[in-house]
């Protein structure tokens, strides 16, 4: 059956069907050459039929399945992603035709946002997790770069919500974009425009996931293996009668409360524990920078578990996984269909998900005494824009995350 994914309304010029990659035909030649006589031969891919990896961005989750059974996979993709909301999350920050926005042949850049939106949040929501996912034109590698939430940034004017523009912490861009009816789509659009103005990077797609969605996905997987590098006491949760509860809920019980402490070491974590640990910043040596690495570690752990558990090759498991994320996820795949994006990224594996650090993993304060991106970090984003990130990382190994 054809993919039944709801595409978001286009904000840019419509693209002729011939300009899109079709997952039912031979994959297009990669930009930069690999046709006969145009350079070195392609690297041989593994032929194990179990590496047909489905790439679906579940918030900040990158998961893979293979092209070996791509026809069947397309049908599964359609069933699994049918309940995922697709909206225009990029606005004017989407790639132009000149930047390769009309094809999936070149590098692919996506914006991943994590938000903590509870029932009483209204439109007072900021982006707690801001991650740029870069996939080079070779489509066999993936990089995650987290932007510190407190980074000083100029947030452009956003007339649709009445925001006049100004300098603020970057996580406020989401808040200013969603106010006055802008919703999550408006929040993501303004965030994408802010990042583009600051780094020069335009995007092929975006995803937003409520943190509650991470817990649902991990619960669907069972557990994930997380390595705690610094013991930290939870700022958000307490035990009551041995049961973990949000602080506000725990206080309502009137019963004795015991701190939730994440002790050093590697272990399998349930959804609530993995999510709570990845959200901690108070009590960590480098605060939000350590939290960024912990969140990246969580994403990689979820990808590994999804593959090792067979969720990517078992239709029932995959459907369960997508249903877990569906009601807390908003996705924008730009001009491409989900199935086309999946087919294009079939060479990315969990072992090639590389986590990078901004500002060398610690604070960089500007002349105003505010957090900012260092010159080296801005150079890293320039390498993203020019699809030279692998060369940049080779020359600057200190940007690699210390998490496994």
From TrEMBL:
The chain crosses the membrane at residues 50-71. Keywords: Membrane, Transmembrane, Transmembrane helix. The keyword Transmembrane applies. It comes from the Bacteria. Coiled coil: none annotated. Residues 1-48 are annotated as: Disordered. Signal peptide: none annotated. InterPro entries: LytR/CpsA/Psr_CW_biosynth (IPR050922), LytR_CpsA_psr (IPR004474). Gene3D superfamilies: LCP protein. Residues 126-307 form the Cell envelope-related transcriptional attenuator domain. NCBIfam families: lytR_cpsA_psr. PANTHER family: POLYISOPRENYL-TEICHOIC ACID--PEPTIDOGLYCAN TEICHOIC ACID TRANSFERASE TAGU (PTHR33392:SF6). Belongs to the LytR/CpsA/Psr (LCP) family. This is LCP family protein. It comes from Micromonospora cathayae. The lineage of its organism: Bacteria, Bacillati, Actinomycetota, Actinomycetes, Micromonosporales.
């Amino acid at each position: 059956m054809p993919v039944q994914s709801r595409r978001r309304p286009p904000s840019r010029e419509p693209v002729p069907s011939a300009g899109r990659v079709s997952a039912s035909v031979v994959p297009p030649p990669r930009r930069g050459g690999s046709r006969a006589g145009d350079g070195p031969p392609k690297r041989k891919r593994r032929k194990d039929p179990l590496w047909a990896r489905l790439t679906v961005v579940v918030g900040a989750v990158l998961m893979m399945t293979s092209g070996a059974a791509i026809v069947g996979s397309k049908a599964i993709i359609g069933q699994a992603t049918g309940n995922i909301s697709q909206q225009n999350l990029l606005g004017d920050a989407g790639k132009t035709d000149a930047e390769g926005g009309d094809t999936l042949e070149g590098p692919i850049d996506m914006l991943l946002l994590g938000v903590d939106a509870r029932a009483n949040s209204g439109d007072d929501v900021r982006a707690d997790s801001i991650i740029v996912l870069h996939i080079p034109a070779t489509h066999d590698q993936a990089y995650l770069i987290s932007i510190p939430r407190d980074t000083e940034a100029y947030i452009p004017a956003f007339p649709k919500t009445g925001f006049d523009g100004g300098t603020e912490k970057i996580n406020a861009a989401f808040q200013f974009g969603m106010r006055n009816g802008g919703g999550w789509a408006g929040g993501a659009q303004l965030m994408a425009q802010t990042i583009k103005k600051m780094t020069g990077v335009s995007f092929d797609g975006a995803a937003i996931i409520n943190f509650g969605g991470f817990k649902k996905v991990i619960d669907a997987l069972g557990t994930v293996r997380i390595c705690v590098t610094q013991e930290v006491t939870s700022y958000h949760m307490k035990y009551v009668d041995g049961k973990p509860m949000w602080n506000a809920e725990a206080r309502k019980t009137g019963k004795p409360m015991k701190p939730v402490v994440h002790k050093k070491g590697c272990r399998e974590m349930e959804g609530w524990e993995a999510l709570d640990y990845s959200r901690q910043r108070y009590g960590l040596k480098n605060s939000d920078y350590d939290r960024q690495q912990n969140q990246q570690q969580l994403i990689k752990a979820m990808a590994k578990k999804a593959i090792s558990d067979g969720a990517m090759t078992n239709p029932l498991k995959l459907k369960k996984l997508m249903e877990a994320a569906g009601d807390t996820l908003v996705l924008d795949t730009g001009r491409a269909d989900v199935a086309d994006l999946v087919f294009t990224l079939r060479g990315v594996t969990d072992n090639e998900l590389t986590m990078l650090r901004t500002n060398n993993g610690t604070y960089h304060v500007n002349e105003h005494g505010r957090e900012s991106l260092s010159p080296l970090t801005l150079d890293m984003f320039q390498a993203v824009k020019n699809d030279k990130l692998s060369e940049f990382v080779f020359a600057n190994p200190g940007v690699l995350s210390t998490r496994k």
